[in-house]
Amino acid sequence: MLNQFSRTQILLGEEGMDKLARARVAVFGIGGVGGYAVEALARSGVGTLDLFDDDRVCLTNINRQLHATHATVGHYKVDAARTRVHEINPDCIVNTHQMFYLPENADTIDLAQYDYIIDAVDTMSAKLDLAERAFRLGVPLIACMGAGNKLDAAAFEVADIFATSVCPLARVMRNELRKRGVSKLKVVYSKEPPIEPQEDMRTSCRAHCVCPPDVSRKCTHRRAIPGSVAFVPSVAGLILAGEVVNGLTKGDTP
Fold it and tell me: What distances in angstroms separate CA 234 from CA 49, 66, 251, one per listed residue?
């Protein structure tokens, strides 16, 4: 029967679509990278999505985050993403978790229930904890390395983290994962050297913060505010989703 996934089924077959419909995928971080990953998973027919983020849509997210529009400013990102997913596939089960994943609250989440995990967070402690816990449990996980301060969307590669180079975030992750006994981690990363951000205080979030009052991690608290564009994090997110879909349907997991 003709449906919204008919063109996908031409490539993946009925068995592949059934695998996606039965799959449960967790996405940690629903921003510029994670939002596009969620979109692609929804359009691919993944049956259950768990979305983790406690942030609200900010005016400055509109330049790169799929669910960020003037209509959704102030909304929780997980809620805005859930609404969008249901407009694409009303049958998709979307579980939203308004939380910022950290080692301190990690025990509240059973990662073993997921068929695949996407790490699109930007906090080192959270990335390391997710990678270690998933590795111990044998749950497939793919992580995005730094996508901020970059302009070359064609520079992204998929590799094991221990085969990466240039990316500063991947370098730190490699060293820390070795200490934790984690021997592999599939990542999306770029060898493009980060561009030095040119912050202009006339338009800077530090001087003109527009975050909702109850947001705990405002840009005014950051050591550095990265620059970003529409076409770099989106590509990273789509690559993440593509790896997940291929892994779920072909058994090509990390």
Answer: 19, 8, 25
